[in-house]
Give the backbone structure.
Amino acid sequence: MGFELENVSYAYGDYPAVDGVSLSLTPGRFYAVIGPNGCGKTTLLDLLCGHKRPDGGDIRYNGHRLPDYGKRNLAQQMALVPQEYRVNFPYTAREVVAMGRYPHIGRFSPPSVDDMAFVDTVLADCRADHLAGRYMTELSGGEKQRVIFARAMAQQTPVLLLDEPCANLDVKHALRLLDLAADRVTRDGATVVAVMHDINLAARYADDFVFMKAGQVTAAGKTDEIFDVNILRSVFEVDVRLTYEAAVNAPQVVFLR
């Protein structure tokens, strides 16, 4: 069933960050949320995962309102890779990734041998196994990003919410992490919702695009149908040209000066 958003709004004081959004997000799809700075993309993710509650409207997940889920149950359903992650304590990367297992572990119980084996597998999948014993406070921005992505993968949820997952990554690691997310969609029927600024990279992975501007969804649909010069010009206020790149089997955008 996935997500159903009906006339959802959220404001920071007098500023409407999300303004009357209605949207359906079905399982087994990779969604890219695209739009200019300050258009409400991150706030939308925070609303989807229950970190924020709408000022108006309703969000349902699998037919139930988000407040009806307990925090533990919600953590078993959704994992978030935030845009920024700060840790001031000397946790190792392996310890941080192991935190992703906590929603599946009994209260006051430590991670099992199987849990930690899975943590090690996920670290390796994210090409971060060599960071396992290092402290998070010692890692670069890109290294931290891979560890936080691994933590979300270790959570093993049917929904993966990614807020600028490639912001601090080089091309090789960005492609690797997006490959892992896309595999979750095709192999497990997961729902991935990714806020991204690189529209061409997003087009390589996303089944659907959600374009936002000024807190509202201006257009949403399948990638090969929604890529339209007029929509792109309206959202980004820049002239564009569209091409199709056979090498990546996806439409690509050229932004003109």
